[in-house]
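Troubleshooting log. The previous structure file for this entry was overwritten by mistake, so regenerating from the original sequence record. Sequence copied from the archived sheet and checked twice against the printout by T.R.
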Amino acid sequence: MRARLLATGIAAALMLAGCGLQQDLGSVPITGNGPVGPATPISAPTLTGTEFAWSSTHGHVVVLDFWGSWCSPCNAEQPDLNKLAAQWMPKGVIFLGVDEQDPIANGAAYERSYKVPYASVNDANEVIISEYNVIDPPTLIVIDAKGDIVDRFLGTLAGISTDLSKLT
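Regenerated output below.
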């Protein structure tokens, strides 16, 4: 019995290690206070093959969702993120997923499995996460209607509705 519990604990620790949420987050800006700079435009094919054009975000609040199908916290957070998107997308907020380090087939399977209501682009080469200084998924970045990054959330949705209420 003890061996089984130990094995379960080790497996859980290894799963979390893939996302890095076990790191000391004291040095990582989890949420910001006001604009921290302009958002880097993202124009790329989505996991379903259609083109996402950054120009479609002009004048809209944007939530970037950095995730990976291999990331246990991302899997756990997705149902709540779907509810958040369902609440805010009708109010004009654009949600865009950025699938990190996944083959396109894995990312597309994740989207189908979780019924993700917004498009995601593939970032297997980690270009977008580098541009946005994303350390680990799940990370959400909020961009105001002027195109400035106003907040980031690492591993939590707590506080994002407050931001969106202020920005819409």
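The longest helix spans residues 72-88. Archived copy saved in two places this time.
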